[in-house]
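Can't paste images in this forum, so I'm doing it all in text. The chain is below; anyone willing to post the predicted structure tokens underneath?
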Amino acid sequence: MSSLVRWVFGLDQVPRLYFGPTVATVALRKSTRPDDTEKLSLREVVERRCPSLHDVFRPAWWLPTGHLQTLYCVIGDFSRVDEVEYERKLLRTVDGGTIGLDFTPNGSQPHIKQNTPVVVVLHGLTGGSHESYVRAILSPACAPPEQGGLGYRAVVVNFRGCAGVPLTTAQLYSAGHTDDIRTALLYIASMYPNAPLLGIGFSLGANVLTRYLAQEGDKSRLSAACILGCPWDLLANSRRLGSTWWGRELYSKGMGSNLKALLRRHVATFEAHPEAEVSKNVPEVLQQSSIRLYQFDDTITRVAGGSSPPFPFPTADDYYIWASSHHALRDVRVPFLALNADDDPIVTVLPVYEEPEKLSPWIVFGVTKGGGHLGWFEEGSRPSQPRRWYRKPVLEWLKAMGEDVVLPERHPKSLREKDGWIMEEGRDDIGCRVDSEGGKVIGVEGEGLLSGL
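Text version of the structure:
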């Protein structure tokens, strides 16, 4: 594409980076000697270790808009790229629910040591470990160093009922409920007590991850995090989505359709719990020929999107206000990279547009010119197979946080074992045990109209 056309569309622009009024200082390793470090601001660390955040993002010439970038997430064929094999474990939670943990790489890996970083991933709305946006990071992150990878471990936390995980209670998941990731981290931390845990969240999973980090502060079990396409202010973005034809008829209906399909796959569970309020609402949703995201949240998520209290909420608006994460950015206490695109058709209201002064010292907030929702496709080696731009800055961030930066000291609560359950000191309502080994899982595309979101 000519430089003139790129200028007209405004496509050749460096991501805009936002920091809080004060920026945290960290120690950066200069050599392998433990005491050989230098003090740098997080801004300086990003300049030195994440050069991709200071380079232009050039969308593929045939995907110049946010709509096209987002739609390609849905219609693109990613089945032959970034294949990842997982080993699944199903965790039973104290309330009887089930969480699916997918571990990679499988088998004996000589290059992996006890202190090798572990990437902990939270997927999007109805996704899972199979999603192409997840595999785009984990394939290179978990490849051996001699193959050009980071050589890390990874665990994808699949929400209740997603990606083949059974739904064993009438409770689902939501953008605001954090106890399931909190529970999963108990098990992951018990498996890898000497390894730093690095979080990655996509879309809805990004919102959950942000809220978890803000709630835990310096007690977080995650040492650093990176999130992409977070929906932030759920109420404001829901209203924006409903204000346009594309938002109502394509994105909202598509996401509602995915959620309805998830509900249908687990209808037997709701029939087995007729006393649950949500079970009474399920037939109403399944009888509708189509349903928008807001309608689903107002009928199902506000009732069963988490434990009681605070669920159920009076309306979806009340749930959105409670579950939003934009107000949580001031409370994050670990290095935290957030990436959004300025033409994301699903997330149009960003906190850095409204209240940039409320970013904590640990936040690096990047906004790209273009990229859509979880797209960021740039031209690859072949026109038919574009590559995701965000792979570069995310891998640079993971390497910096996993190897180069002396991560801030945290004080997570001690783990304890009680009658075969792994629990946290001071809480009897949070705990897990291995329910079963789920066998091998190979990352392939999911199902639904808007898979990939």
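Residues 82 and 139 are 5 Å apart (CA to CA). The two ends are 28 Å apart (CA to CA).
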